[in-house]
Write a structure and sequence with these properties.
By secondary structure, the protein is α+β, with helices and mostly antiparallel strands. The chain contains 13 helices and 13 strands. Strand 8 and strand 9 form a beta hairpin. The protein binds adenosine-5'-diphosphate and magnesium ion (MG).
Amino acid sequence: MKPLRVAVLMGGTSSEREISLSTGRQIMAALDREKYLPVSLDAAALVGRQTAPLSSGSCGTPLPESDPAAFGSFVPAALSGSPALIPEDGLRPDVVFIALHGKGGEDGTIQGMLELLGIPYTGSGVLASALAMDKAMAKRLLRAEGIPVPEEILVRRSARPKSADLAARIEGSFGFPAVVKPNAEGSTIGCAIVREPDRLEEALNDALRYDSTALIEEYIGGTEITAGLLGNEEPEALPLIEIVAKSGFYDYEAKYAPGGSAHIIPARISETAAALARDYAIRSHQALGCRGMSRVDMMVRADQPYVLEVNTIPGMTPTSLLPEAAQAAGIPFPALLDRLIAYALAKE
Ligand SMILES: Nc1ncnc2c1ncn2[C@@H]1O[C@H](COP(=O)(O)OP(=O)(O)O)[C@@H](O)[C@H]1O
Ligand SMILES: [Mg+2]
């Protein structure tokens, strides 16, 4: 069979660019060359941003078989408004593997562009991607489905109440500690646990640097777990992973530094809690209309899981959770990529 042309879209312009490059490199290296003809593309270049060559990112490893000239020009050609520039065969990829995180990659915008171009792509579509990126919106839908989520107060930069008033509202509802985070960010960027009212102002300032809306959430103390899901409408739940951050907080450092956190499979929670967690995870994926894969982050308190967020493009770095969960389910990384590409090409 002729190998499928796979364009691995990585990098981009979001605050998670470095992680995306690491994910993209890992994917490029693992794609089976018998089945695929992979080419890497920096999403930043699509929007005309100057970036360092992909081979010289902080992760250092040169990209294998990267030849943007082969079909890397397909998008600029399409964007120039001349369909004749996208040949029927030749330059056009059969599928785009989206290895982007955060805004401009995981939020439905790239997905919309690929829809317009008529090119299949891995992972969720426009709506599910946009919903999952907006934590407040996603929580509304999950709540409506009867899935437990932490309570929250939404703070908009443009109509920001006085911190003392907010602190009083928090004390009158879920109380301190509270978690402050930007509504649409990832990788724990701008996210903080606020233990005392007088730290609220600073935490909100920080969160609102990353997004015009911040969430103040009820703090759920307990066991942190994550559920990886594979599939389109009827996803299967991979083994639950428990995350134990060295610093006590699963922040950027804990997520990406080697040894920053320990991952325990299966998570050390009761069978009751695990069954609920799998059920909530599958229903969260379905409620948002995710496709291909997702990873649902949860906190388990007294056998009750709470969904924190749904990630539509989970990291695939060497220390990432979804590949680890797949491995534990007997799905090695190259086979995981095969599946994601098959889900992308599935018509249902
Ligand atoms: N309500 C909460 N209660 C307890 N811990 C939380 C809560 N919200 C977030 N956290 C902690 O912060 C981390 C990041 O939060 P999350 O909502 O998953 O955002 P993101 O991963 O997109 O930055 C979580 O992995 C968890 O350790
Ligand atoms: Mg998370």
